[in-house]
């Protein structure tokens, strides 16, 4: 007989029709941490690559009138487009990285919801890109002053 953990109801993943073992719950929590760590590392690397490619944001050209806010808005949209495409690619790459504890305790790593929507990856990429955050802050400041 399978012994069930008393913390299953508290964890929010208890279902009367489908009971989960303690090994399954611990494995799933570990998998979430594993995927989040991968997203964090890939996000930091991608943010660093973007900052290296784009360099420091120079607002002097916009203040002197050499470049218009329209072009800055287009740059931001294009930047977001590139980020979205790379997010899609990175999400698929992380999904291909094998999980060492797959199929332990009945856990299937391919069914993990965190693999489908990398919110942490999006946040890390945007948050740690100095060029993009400076560009967006300047654009918003100029548009709404």
What is the share of helical residues? 55-70%
Count of domains: 1
Secondary structure: number of strands: 0
Whole-Å distance between the termini?
68 Å
Main β-sheet description: none
Which secondary-structure class do the elements indicate? mainly alpha
Order of helices and strands: HHHHHH
Tell the overall outline.
elongated
Mean pLDDT: 83
Helix count, DSSP H or I runs of 4 or more residues: 6
Radius of gyration: 21 Å
Q: Spans of 5+ residues with little confidence (pLDDT < 50)?
A: none
Strand content: under 5%
Verbal overview:
- This protein is mainly α and 145 residues long.
- 63% of the residues lie in helices and 0% in strands.
- The chain is built from six helices and no strands.
- Helix 2 runs parallel beside helix 5 and helix 4 runs antiparallel to helix 6.
- It is elongated, with a radius of gyration of 21 Å.
- The N and C termini lie far apart (68 Å).
- The mean pLDDT is 83.
Defining key terms:
145 residues, single chain, mainly alpha
Give the gist of this structure.
The chain is mainly α and 145 residues long.
Secondary structure: elements and pairs:
Blueprint: H1 8-11, H2 22-54, H3 60-63, H4 69-96, H5 119-127, H6 130-143
């Amino acid at each position: 007989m399978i012994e069930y953990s008393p913390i299953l109801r508290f964890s929010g993943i208890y279902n009367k029709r489908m009971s989960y073992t303690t090994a399954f719950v611990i494995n799933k929590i570990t998998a979430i941490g594993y995927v989040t760590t991968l997203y964090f590392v890939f996000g930091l690397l991608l943010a660093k690559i973007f900052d290296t490619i784009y360099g420091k944001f120079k607002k002097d050209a916009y203040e002197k009138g050499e470049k218009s806010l329209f072009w800055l808005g287009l740059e931001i949209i294009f930047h977001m487009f590139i980020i979205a495409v790379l997010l899609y690619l990175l999400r698929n790459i992380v999904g291909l990285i094998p999980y060492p504890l797959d199929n332990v305790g009945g856990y299937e790593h391919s069914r993990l919801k965190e693999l489908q929507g990398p919110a942490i990856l999006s946040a890390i990429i945007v948050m740690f890109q100095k060029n993009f955050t400076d560009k967006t802050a300047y654009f918003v400041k100029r548009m709404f002053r």
